[in-house]
């Protein structure tokens, strides 16, 4: 069944998945992460497709995680383990899709939204976008499997700017850093992204699928134990995360103590 916040449309051999929660700038709750995994897996299985485009409604790509849903979905280690599993499968479904995936980025591309974009094979953004990962503002630890594609794209220096400094880049800066494949005026993003999707679709689908797989496999698997991967969810047990979460809901600035 199609997810209500993730409608899929098709134009010939190109499928478009739209993040459709404009009232929260297309922020993702756990159900949407799970819906993304199911949607991308279904599209990946369609031999007739050649390209998938991801985009948002209301002038934003995605503002990332829905902080308003944290009270019900996150906040304890048990809840965080479940939530992180949903995020992981949602993110990786984009990376593992057989078909090339194009991110059509307008407006906010923040947190998990930026994470989704870095899982795509191509990213087309407007000059006025806001691209960044704000995990540090809530005391959240980004997981290894989600850091890996960023590191592969831009190296350790820019990854540190995103995750440790918390930089928010505009479109031109994101392009210069290597986070975008194309940067165009804000009013031309849709046309540029679909022109790219059409160029991809004109080529051999078997060639595109092989090369996508080859690029990923040459990177190799992450040399991490299960315990190391689970360590990334440990922030849920820290005072910093709990205090930052409460401060966010109260619209106050968090104070971090390192505990």
Structure description:
The protein has helices spanning 30-44, 70-73, 77-95, 112-119, 144-165, 171-177, 189-202, 205-219, 226-231, 239-249; strands at 8-11, 14-19, 51-56, 101-105, 108-110, 122-126, 130-132, 168-169, 182-184. It has 259 residues and is of the alpha/beta class. It has one domain: Alpha-Beta Complex (2-enoyl-CoA Hydratase, Chain A, domain 1). The strands form two sheets. It has a six-stranded mixed beta sheet, with helices on both faces. Strands 5-7-8 form a three-stranded mixed beta sheet. The protein is globular, with a radius of gyration of 18 Å.
Keywords:
259 residues, 6-stranded mixed β-sheet
Radius of gyration: 18 Å
Q: Domains counted in the coordinates: how many? A: 1
Average residue pLDDT? 93
- The secondary structure category is alpha/beta
Provide a count of the helices.
Answer: 10
CATH fold group:
2-enoyl-CoA Hydratase, Chain A, domain 1
Oligomer: single chain
Largest sheet: 6 strands, mixed
Roughly what percent helix?
A: 40-55%
CATH A-level architecture? Alpha-Beta Complex
CATH-wise, what's the superfamily? 2-enoyl-CoA Hydratase, Chain A, domain 1
- The order of strands across the largest sheet is 1-2-3-4-6-9
Residue stretches low in confidence (pLDDT < 50, at least 5 long) are: none
DSSP summary, beta strand count: 9
Order of helices and strands: EEHEHHEEHEEHEHEHHHH
Shape: globular
CATH class: Alpha Beta
For the termini, the CA-CA separation is: 43 Å
Question: Strand portion, in percent?
Answer: 5-15%
């Amino acid at each position: 069944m199609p997810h209500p916040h993730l409608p899929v449309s098709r134009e010939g051999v190109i499928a478009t998945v739209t993040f459709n929660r404009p009232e929260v700038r297309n922020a993702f709750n756990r159900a949407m992460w799970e819906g993304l995994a199911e949607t991308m897996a279904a599209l990946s299985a369609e031999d007739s497709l050649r390209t998938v485009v991801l985009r948002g409604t209301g002038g934003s790509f995605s503002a990332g995680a829905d902080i308003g849903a944290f009270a019900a979905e996150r906040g304890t280690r048990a809840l965080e383990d479940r939530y992180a599993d949903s995020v992981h499968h949602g993110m990786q479904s984009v990376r593992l899709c057989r078909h090339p995936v194009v991110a059509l980025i307008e407006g906010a591309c923040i947190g998990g939204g930026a994470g989704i974009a870095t899982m795509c094979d191509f990213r087309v953004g407007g000059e006025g976008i806001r691209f960044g990962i704000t995990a540090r503002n809530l005391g959240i630890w980004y997981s290894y499997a989600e850091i890996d594609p960023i590191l592969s794209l831009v190296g350790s220096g820019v990854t540190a700017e995103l995750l440790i400094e918390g930089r928010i880049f505009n479109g031109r800066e994101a392009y210069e850093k290597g986070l975008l494949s194309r940067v165009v005026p804000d009013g031309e993003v849709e046309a540029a992204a679909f022109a790219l999707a059409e160029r991809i679709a004109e080529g051999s689908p078997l060639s595109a699928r092989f090369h996508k797989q080859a690029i990923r496999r040459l990177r190799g698997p992450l040399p991490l134990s299960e315990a190391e991967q689970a360590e990334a969810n440990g922030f849920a047990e820290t005072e910093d995360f709990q205090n930052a979460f409460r401060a966010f809901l109260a619209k106050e600035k968090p104070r971090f103590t390192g505990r």
